[in-house]
Design a protein that fits this description.
The chain has about 80 residues and is an alpha+beta fold. About 40% of the residues lie in helices and about 25% in strands. Strand 2 and strand 3 form a beta hairpin. The longest helix has 15 residues. It is elongated. It starts with 10 loop residues before the first strand and ends with a helix.
Length: about 80
């Protein structure tokens, strides 16, 4: 892990297209501005983990989808 020190309004560049700007430092909280192409998805870690968990749960519900398909097919 690379660890960098930055002050308010200073930037960190990631590659050519992504920049992180330190917007505000207040106590133990830091506000970071992120500029990135729309094709780059940016999430807070807890949101990313929730999305991953939902995706895993949805992928595991294939049996329920097959059961529902069978029920719907019988209604035709």
């Amino acid at each position: 892990m690379l660890i960098l020190s930055r002050k308010t309004n200073e930037k960190i560049m990631i590659g050519d297209e992504i920049s992180l700007t330190i917007i505000e430092i207040r106590g133990d909280q830091v506000k970071v501005g992120i500029e990135a192409p729309k094709s780059v998805k940016v999430f807070r870690q807890e949101v990313f983990e929730a999305i991953q968990n939902e995706n895993r749960a949805a992928a595991g519900s294939g049996a329920n989808l097959e059961k529902l398909s069978g029920i719907l097919a019988r209604q035709d």
